[in-house]
Amino acid sequence: MLFEDVPLVPDFRLELKARKAGHWPVAGADEAGRGPLAGPVVAAAVILDPKRIPDGLNDSKQLSAQKREELFAQILATATVSIASSSSTRIDETDIRKASLDAMRRAICGLSIPASYVLTDGLDVPPGLLCPGQAVVKGDARSVSIAAASIVAKVTRDRMMARADSTFPTYGFAAHMGYGTAQHRAGIEKHGPCSLHRMTFSPLKKVQGVEIDIDIGID
Predict the structure, then answer these.
(1) How far apart are CA 11 and CA 23, in angstroms?
(2) Which of 33, 39, 58, 109 has the smallest CB count inside 10 Å?
(3) Cα 86–Cα 167–Cα 172 angle in degrees, nearest 5
(4) Is 30 annotated as a binding residue?
(5) What is the pLDDT of residue 7?
(6) How far apart are CA 217 and CA 89, in angstroms?
């Protein structure tokens, strides 16, 4: 395919398309933390001000930690933002997909300005919304509203895991944010799991003999 290696750059076209169809305001929603072995999954919903869209919005995974922090501050200063999370306990009680979608639903419903339309990253629109929505594959690389939500969710979750590190210092949460790094797995092997660990995720499910296949996603 011609230009297949050219990276996507998010823009405001999907939001304007929804506005032309009579939907306004438009929120973008995304989550962070589907894949880690520990900690919550965090979702954010963002309604950008078209006249004050921060420069440099992109998929949070494409940005440095410093850039994410800078954009996080700008988004909170210029946009309508709502954040929600699902704990490791809720993830284990349901599954990561359901817990992620529920956190996203609560973030969207928590917006101080109700959204008329929602753009979500991935394959699913959360059930139970009071407005229509559209799931956008690679949405954080296509829509600036979704990109903004991805940044807010990622920075919020990283801060939560950094704080958790002071309570559970043996795992190194501040370094890996709960992902299954060698350091993290070594900590689990030496000290066992803590209350933040997702016991239905491999290799933790083996600790308590739970044999459940889970789609943990890649975020």
Answers:
(1) 18
(2) 109
(3) 85
(4) yes
(5) 63
(6) 18
pLDDT in tens, 82-99: 999 999 999 999 999 999
In the numeric block, the tokens 């939907």 are attached to 23
Using only the alpha carbons of the chain, give its radius of gyration. 18
CB 119 within 8 A of CB 134: yes
Query: DSSP secondary structure string, 43-71?
Result: EEEEE--TTSPPTT---GGGS-HHHHHHH
Q: What is the pLDDT of residues 149-200, one digit of tens each?
A: 999 999 999 999 999 999 999 999 999 999 999 999 999 999 999 999 999 9
- Dist. CA 119–CA 200, nearest whole Å: 30
Considering the domain 12-191 in this protein, what is its CATH number? 3.30.420.10
CA distance 105 to 48: 18
CA-to-CA distance for 133 and 145, rounded, in angstroms?
13
For the stretch 165-195, what's the b/e string if a residue is b when 16 or more beta carbons lie within 10 angstroms of its beta carbon? beebeebbbeebbbbbbeebeebbeeeebbe
- Residue 121 marked as a ligand binder: yes
- Decide the pairing of beta strands 117-121 and 133-136: parallel
- The secondary structure of 103-130, three-state, reads HHHHHHHCCCCCCCEEEEECCCCCCCCC
Q: pTM for the whole thing?
A: 0.91
The per-residue pLDDT for range 99-125, each reduced to its tens digit, is 999 999 999 999 999 999 999 999 999
69 marked among binding-site residues: no
- CB atoms closer than 10 angstroms to residue 52: 11
Domain ranges of the chain: 12-191
